[in-house]
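Dissemination and training. As part of the outreach component of the grant, students in the summer workshop were shown how a complex can be specified as a set of sequence lines and then modelled as a single object. The example used during the hands-on session is reproduced here so that future cohorts can follow it. Participants entered these lines:
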Amino acid sequence: MAFVAFGQSTPQKQQGPTKSGRIALVLLTPGLAYLGLFFITPLISLITTSLKTASASGVIGRYDFALEFGNYAFAIGQYAPQIFRSFAYALIATVVALLISYPIAYFIGVKARNKPLLQGLLLTLVIAPFFISFLLRTFAWKQIFSNDSFIVNLLKDIGIFGADTNIIGTDFAVVFGLVYNFIPFMTLPIYASLDRLDLRLVEAGGDLYANPATTFWKITFPLSLPGVISGTLLTFIPISGDYVVASRDFLGSSSTAMIGNVVETNFLRIQDYPTASALSVMLMATIVVLVSAYVRRSGTDDLL
Amino acid sequence: MSNSFVAQGQDLELQGIRKEFPGFVAVNDLDLKIPAGEFFALLGPSGCGKTTTLRMIAGLESPSAGKILLGGKDVTNTKPHERPVNTVFQNYALFPHMSVIENVAFGLRQRKVDEPLKRAGEALAMVELEHLGERKPQQLSGGQQQRVALARAMVNRPSLLLLDEPLGALDLKLRRQMQIELKAIQMEVGLTFLHVTHDQEEAMDMADTVAVMNQGHIEQLGAPEALYDRPKTAFVAKFLGQSNIFVGEVTESNEVVSISYNQTKLSALAKRCEKSSGRIAFGVRPEKVQFHEDKPEDNPGLNILGPGQITDIRFTGVSNQYQIEIPKVGEITVFAQNIGRSPVVELGATVWVSWKVEHTFGLSDLPSGTEIAE
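and obtained this result:
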């Protein structure tokens, strides 16, 4: 009898999860469809394109399906400097942006915490650049950095720069532009972390003999790490693939080209789709590897 | 525990401490001396300035005026991390990104004490949590977190340990248990404890000396028994336990002071009165009052009021609480223990109440509101 009763109750118990499982599936469908259509499909297309070979017909811009892994070797061989430069720029710009953004975020999230008006004003100032297209803003910097600009001439006249100094098109100009464009993406997540920081923990640090600097490094900074991690990811990833700032039309020159610029040239000008695709796939794979190593190393799960 | 570094409590002295915030004075010219090794409680309602006082002693706020001396040394302008003072915070303030043992070892590491983890382990053993050292604070229950906070502060052997309502977040049973443990630990290590609380039972139960604080100043200070037996102000009489308070003109003032209270004479011993002329307030504790079904005989040793009606009976376990409404006198509260000997009375019964003259206490002020009444 007991077994019968048990056997009867089992299907009833399973009914709940099945029903809610069906509802979950319905709810997930739009998201999954979106991902399938706009992420998986292009990704597959990109990977297959990266393995194509030049069309037997000899028409420029036509490629046949193949498994040409040599495209990758070619892309690396041809564009190693640009690949390296992209990640170097991204790394430097991310570190500089972090150094600039952390004090800003700290001031807004901690020092201005009890002054809602000041806090609101400062936050607005942080996102104010977004009100203008970043193309226009980058163009503005091109004007400022260009060789005959008022500011560059002034700095040359007062002797800070030599007469033959060139700023536009240098590593400095590009990294500067990248930092400038991505500072809000660094500042906002760090601000969000610091705004939630329980200041009583900071007081407890002082109470336990830690001087303000030690309290910062042992308590404030570790507790703001989730924001620092999100901020650096939101900065590093887009910068690695950026192709506007470093392009010749903006702050760069041929000697500052990044992967993004090479991909653009190959896709849109040379119409070498397989090489452009191979570069894109490599960029994506490298970012995934770097980011997962970074996130794992920083051990953010402990903080959540 | 054989710790080599400072293991002795020190005297704390506050001289004319004042703290002003924009728009109000939180602490008003406070003078206080706590001898080394004492368990001292600062008791008061919320907003009375007790937490501000504690924060000034910890160095988390700086006083607008006055001096703070610790072991005779002026620490008024010393930074919090340079004061030999540790705090058990109200919300515990445990570091969420560190394990329990690292939390406890934090202060030791800052002071570069040898073997911080070993000492932290010993401190955790003292609060019986040595097996939870590797956990994160948020994985512990409220009571466990409280004990970690206590261990984290005590392991440093501070000259003075500050406790900011550390038991406030615990349930009644756990609170009782923690009170006993805290008191036992304090007796064992002999540190000076300053405990800030709004719970009068907790303060009376644990502290050697209780200071009752109200509106930024200390109303009365003394041993719990003394405070309870002879409150000197109406605020203390009402905040520390309950009191029946009567206001009247003094009619007689010798060894016994009498007042006329609505044509009834009430008396108190002169040595238990703060004032003996003019309009003064007398009080008596509800458990000192007895009620009678028949009018008791007049007796110079007794204060008698009645007859009145019982308007409310509340059963609280060990005792019953009676409200007796006496015409022209007002409401009187009486506690009677449930030991089976008190008269069986029902709601609405007519009774007289009496208490011994020596149980009356005379206050230095009048309860708020009575100045305008009548």
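The CA atoms of residues 92 and 174 of chain B lie 16 Å apart. Students were then asked to discuss how this feature might be tested experimentally.
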